[in-house]
Amino acid sequence: MAVWVALDAMGGDFAPQATVEGALMALKSFPELGVYLVGQPEVLAPLLKRRVPKKLEIVPAKEVVAMDESPIGALRTKLDSSIRRSFDLLKEGTAQAVVSAGNSGAVLATALFVLGRIKGVSRPAIATVLPTIRGQAVMIDSGANVDCKPHHLLQFAYMGAVFSREILRVPSPKVGLLSIGEEGGKGNTLVKRTHQLLTESGLNYVGNIEGRDIYRGEVDVIVCDGFVGNICLKLSEGLAEALMLMMAQELRSSRLAQIGFSFARGALKRFQQRIDWRERGGAPLLGVKGVVIISHGRSDAQAIKNALGTALFFVKEEVLENLSRDLAELPSLVQSAQR
Amino acid sequence: MAVWVALDAMGGDFAPQATVEGALMALKSFPELGVYLVGQPEVLAPLLKRRVPKKLEIVPAKEVVAMDESPIGALRTKLDSSIRRSFDLLKEGTAQAVVSAGNSGAVLATALFVLGRIKGVSRPAIATVLPTIRGQAVMIDSGANVDCKPHHLLQFAYMGAVFSREILRVPSPKVGLLSIGEEGGKGNTLVKRTHQLLTESGLNYVGNIEGRDIYRGEVDVIVCDGFVGNICLKLSEGLAEALMLMMAQELRSSRLAQIGFSFARGALKRFQQRIDWRERGGAPLLGVKGVVIISHGRSDAQAIKNALGTALFFVKEEVLENLSRDLAELPSLVQSAQR
């Protein structure tokens, strides 16, 4: 049976070329996939030329939310935007997932408004998979929530643990709280209070971790607020880039060193690609009633294709169902979300 | 005229061997320096053997603050600790600076209590110099204050700008506020409010910067709270290390690649050393009435030597006097500190 994904065809810096091209690529790669291209038919149809595969349909949406537009404003006034229509398709059961590289604030706000939250979650969060020395770890929240309370971070921890178990296949994920010292007493007020909640959470909580531990792979789930998480991700991207440049400057002197550098640069580039998971395949928004994959605003066709593949994977693996079931079994969490 | 520095000889993971050795090395390198070795004479004297230079004196302090001891507890009860006695020497004018690799919370608390704050500053902050693609930038606060208010971040910005001008010789330092989007409306509540204050500050404020901009060198002063700053620094250290390991894993296959890697590794190692400024020379605590250099707990003799050199440099350059004078000329800042 086909899995149909609603793709916000107008969202992202390189839309609609990248979204249309990405959809066509995905349809070739994933036989089970169907794609609703949501957007302005007069813009989308010409890009398809005569290449209209069987499992691709244009769903009309008159309006486009600009990348720098106010999310709440867009939610209130643009009722026929490509973002809004994509979520409507998901809500009404026509589509089984949404992929968007558009205005991420508007995507978040619309997802919350149209789909609602699953039981036990007061704030949906973005989960990003990071490469580590030992494998992979999930960082949650990576940017959806800038101001958080302790019970929000507790919910992120539960969602991250389910994600780690279901998607990364870690049987009993180790959960760490990002802070500035390993002792439980260290950190800001938010972290100190969260530490207490996590200690009593029943999760495999190993305590505070420091910035230097993120890539060491000693924990499977890194819990932080979206402000800190987003800064960490972007810092990592930027540092890998800066290191490449610094190395290039240093190694300009020797011919042998230059050859060496060309190898090192390849490794750094691959790291950069691995780190920018949104660019590769989109990051899921966990905690809303639906599969939502948020892609990088800079997504090219390849990234859109990967995001559609991720959406398909999430639907097939029943991540949403598992998350909803697991969280509903935690009465204390459900209680905390009612605060 | 000699500059005498009070060295907390009992502070740090490798004290007192590293502190004594570091002091001896510094005295050889810096002819203008004098060092008070503050600590337990029965422990320190044997380490000196017969090598007691003219400008080295042991100043007795009976107690030692453990690395994991409560800072406030230590401040209240250990009145004859090596940390407390070091600051007493500075306060009474016997010494002109303090260097400590000891319990940094206790060093902060004692500095505040004994020396007090300079006019216009409600929260002293740690300034760390980072290498960038274009040169250097100062990150403030790097870990002294985990929970901040907007006017604290404003004060950090002023102190960072003075530091950049006086120490890094940047004529009109560009100040950036670390956030998760470049637009002024993006960020958490703290950052949004601080953005408003910085816009009206009279500083060369360029707006929000993102994590990826830190190492690009587009700003000279990076303003953030100490929780975020500390995580960024430690993440950078850890990522450089992880990249080295990941590269080593990737490049194991080819002989040529291995040669290349040995060059790349050298560059990464140098970056790591540049980044961990505390390890190299200690980071200054700005905003207290005295020159205070905080060294890494893991400081070895070389790091202690460098920290003593940094202290000497700060005294000679009259950083404290310039900072006090510049900040006192900002009535709005002085006002904000009275809140």
From TrEMBL, chains A, B:
Its EC number is 2.3.1.274. Pathway: Lipid metabolism; phospholipid metabolism. One of its GO terms (cellular component) is cytoplasm. One of its GO terms (biological process) is fatty acid biosynthetic process. It is found in: Cytoplasm. Gene3D superfamilies: Isopropylmalate Dehydrogenase. HAMAP family: PlsX (MF_00019). Belongs to the PlsX family. This is Phosphate acyltransferase. It comes from Thermodesulfatator atlanticus. The lineage of its organism: Bacteria, Pseudomonadati, Thermodesulfobacteriota, Thermodesulfobacteria, Thermodesulfobacteriales. The gene is plsX.
